[in-house]
Design goal:
499 residues; alpha/beta; Rossmann fold; UDP-N-acetylmuramoyl-L-alanine:D-glutamate ligase; 20 helices; 15% strand; disordered N terminus; binds ligand NAX; binds potassium ion
């Protein structure tokens, strides 16, 4: 990935990668206890900043280094004059290494965790498990989660709310729901994938002093979808250029009773910067489409022969196929003809290949075109059932596997949309408000991707930039968003200086 990944704010590092970074840091002579001290101090500072008048900080410490951070935080909070109670999960005599040292330095009594009784003014510091959580949260910890939830106490999480799997964002049995999470060096997939993301509260990524080059060396091409990921590819898109240079996007309409979805895509494509947009309509739907279009042009394309003739115009460079199109042979024939240019395959376009996916994947591999597929969860299951059913994989890993198999860029939709390329590169989109999940929203997204492809952006960047602009449009529109309002609120691509 280009420069964006060297900015640690945009990186996602998996727990195994982070463990390797820790080892490299120790190997390069950095004192690992000083890292733990920085981590614990950052947690203490966050807790005091957020809850300056807490009656009592209750620190839960686990059996590993996450617990070690907790002991440091407890010592720092005590030194600041705060009232602190510390509860340990497991036998503190079995603590090892830095965690044992942090426990010894704390020097006060650690109470056994089952004795914890919530008090109404408690602020919880959760240092039970972090990146090292390897299986379901132990029963004893699950019970404490229940007590804290029931009492409605605020939780500040160390690294991750205990119970959230840092690789997948899944909840391992139960988890705390934090108001604030302090993680170290870089965010983990579990902070941005659902349901984990919904339980982290605000996320603080604190630099504990591991050199960035050590983190970057282990990071495997995952990031957060920020403009820096695709801005360089968007920089050449000068709105003043001749309209054909801005590309000609074609969107395929369904029959007379299902034309609205394609018109939404077309309108979004025009708004997002395609130079020309044509709605390709079957004969029967021409009157209804004609009655609703102004800036978008209309072309009658009834069958594959019509399409073949139209494709002689090489300026037609990007296509959206699927919204409202209808499932079946016609969708398959059209899609296979379009793979060698730039194609967004969405909705019915995806479902049409449920039983015939290898035809599509082989054609994409052979054609060398720019293809983006935009499945929601159900469509993903239809097209990639074996990947969808693999419970061990995270949403990122599923999208990566699907991209590799299909040779296309996969935009896997949801509140935590993932964009993955066949190379394994992937980003998670984080700017989408919940109300973006409105009828027709996906059609708008497909149109924005199409506009980017028409302007010559490579498929990965086209999809990532579109997910981001779609999220921004949702924010600008507000809670009452309809798909038409989203189109109106697609903002220009951000300038070079935006981060
Ligand atoms: N560079 C870094 O990232 C640093 C990480 N630090 C902390 O170290 C943490 C990672 O430490 P660890 O690798 O020791 O991991 P954890 O402290 O998250 O937990 C690991 C311990 O719990 C056990 N365990 C895992 N799952 C369990 C389960 N379900 N039930 C019972 N026991 C279970 C493991 O055998 C191990 O003893 C991070 O979350 C962070 O808080 C800090 O100390 C500073 C440096
Ligand atoms: K934790």
């Amino acid at each position: 990935m280009p420069n964006a990944l060297h900015d640690m704010r945009n990186l996602l590092v998996t727990p195994p990668e982070m463990q390797a970074v820790d080892k490299d840091a120790a190997g390069s002579g950095i004192d690992s206890f000083s890292l733990m001290r920085s981590a614990g101090m950052a947690v203490s500072a966050a807790a005091l900043r957020l809850f300056p008048s807490a009656a009592r900080f209750v620190v839960f410490c686990g059996p590993g280094n996450n617990g070690g951070d907790g002991y440091v935080a407890a010592a720092a909070l005590t030194a600041s004059g705060a009232n602190v109670a510390l509860y340990a999960l497991g036998d503190t005599g079995k603590l090892k290494g830095d965690a044992a040292r942090a426990h010894a330095a704390y020097g006060r009594e650690a109470i056994s965790i089952e004795l914890y009784e919530p008090q109404s003014q408690d602020v919880i510091i959760d240092a039970l498990f972090g990146a090292g959580l390897a299986r379901e949260l132990p029963d004893q910890a699950q019970e404490i989660v229940g007590r804290v939830d029931q009492a409605g106490l605020p939780v500040v999480a160390v690294d991750l709310p205990s119970g959230i799997d840092g690789r997948t964002g899944e909840i391992r049995g139960a988890s705390f729901t934090a108001v604030h999470t302090v993680t170290f060096m870089a965010a983990k997939p579990g902070h941005v994938l659902m349901p984990g993301r919904g339980r982290c509260g605000t996320l603080e990524v604190f630099d504990i002093g591991i050199p960035a080059r050590l983190v970057a060396a282990r990071a495997g091409g995952l990031g957060i979808n920020v403009p820096a990921v695709w801005r360089q590819c968007a920089a050449g898109l000068d709105p003043a250029t001749h309209k054909f240079k801005r590309g000609h996007l074609a969107v395929f309409s369904g029959g007379p009773t299902s034309t609205g979805a394609a018109r939404l895509s077309a309108a979004a494509g025009l708004r997002a910067g395609a130079g020309l947009v044509t709605l390709a309509s079957p004969t029967e739907a021409i009157p209804v489409n004609a009655a609703h279009l102004t800036a978008v042009m209309l072309k009658e394309i009834g069958n594959a022969a019509d399409l073949a003739e139209w494709l002689k115009d090489s300026r037609l460079n990007a296509f959206v196929l699927g919204p409202g199109f209808g499932i079946g042979e016609k969708a398959r024939d059209f899609a296979l003809m379009l793979c060698e240019r730039a194609l967004v395959l969405d909705a019915d376009g995806l479902t049409s290949f449920k039983e015939r996916r290898s035809e599509l994947f082989d054609r994409i591999a052979a054609s060398g075109g720019q293809v983006v597929m935009t499945p929601h969860e159900g469509e993903f299951q239809r097209l990639f059932p074996e990947i969808a059913a693999d419970g061990k994989l995270s949403k990122i890993e599923k999208a990566q596997a699907a991209a590799k198999l299909s040779h296309a860029v996969i935009l896997s939709k949801g509140p935590d949309t993932v964009i993955a390329a066949p190379s394994g590169r992937a980003v998670v989109n984080v700017n989408a408000p919940p109300w973006l999940a409105t009828a027709g929203s996906g059609d708008v997204l497909a149109g924005i991707i199409g506009a980017h492809l028409a302007q010559g952006m490579p498929a990965f960047e086209a999809a990532a930039a579109a997910a981001w602009r779609h999220g921004e449009a949702g924010r600008r529109t507000g809670r009452s968003a309809t798909a038409e309002m989203l189109v109106e609120n697609i903002a220009p691509l951000p300038e070079e200086s935006a981060s």
